[in-house]
């Protein structure tokens, strides 16, 4: 009983990003190839929601865990760039899928996120035996067996890797779009609703790449058209 209590205490004290390789769900599924799937940009006001699907060889897990792979939100931009490059170099397969702002407005952000994840998985050149999907929602009509993991980017190395790859890809896209839409401060906010971004929306209204189903964009559009 004491041994069990000590094990639980040790697990609670271990930082979330320090993966215990023996506890990773992708290693306990007895599957040859497991893809991690995650999305980024769900809460942004501008641009697409982006997902990545990553398949890693088991031989790379220890190296990537030691290198610091974890939930992308816990990493600096420069660290994400280095890790994304390392992940891409060792991955068996790594693909991106996205859903546009128009799709988000048409089918809502949740369904668009799931669509982006499905597209990422469908683009994989190597068929996984199982997909580990971050969150509670399953990907509709996915031909590959899937397992949902709440807080998956904290519990699964392959999901954490997918979150990093997706974040780096989306950030790069937003930096490119920032030159086309300079007034929204996209270089710094990556499409999220910072004070500067919201102020720009009030002053200039939304662009064609803003998510008009999101309240701040709706209000900004109404304000501009009412002038």
Largest pleated sheet: 5 strands, mixed
Overall geometry: elongated
| CATH level 4 superfamily | Ribonuclease H-like superfamily/Ribonuclease H
Q: What percent of the residues sit in helical stretches (DSSP H or I)?
A: 40-55%
* Count of alpha/pi helices: 10
What name does CATH use for the topology?
Nucleotidyltransferase, domain 5
CATH class reads: Alpha Beta
Spatial order of strands in the largest sheet: 3-2-1-4-5
Number of domains: 1
Distance between the termini: 71 Å
Order of helices and strands: HEEHHEHHEEHHHHH
| Stretches with pLDDT under 50, minimum 5 residues | 1-17
Structural class: alpha/beta
Number of strands: 5
Rg measurement, Å: 19 Å
Tell me about this structure:
The protein is elongated. By secondary structure, it is α/β, with parallel strands linked by helices. It has ten helices and five strands, in the order αββααβααββααααα. The protein has one domain: Ribonuclease H-like superfamily/Ribonuclease H (Nucleotidyltransferase, domain 5, 2-Layer Sandwich), CATH 3.30.420.
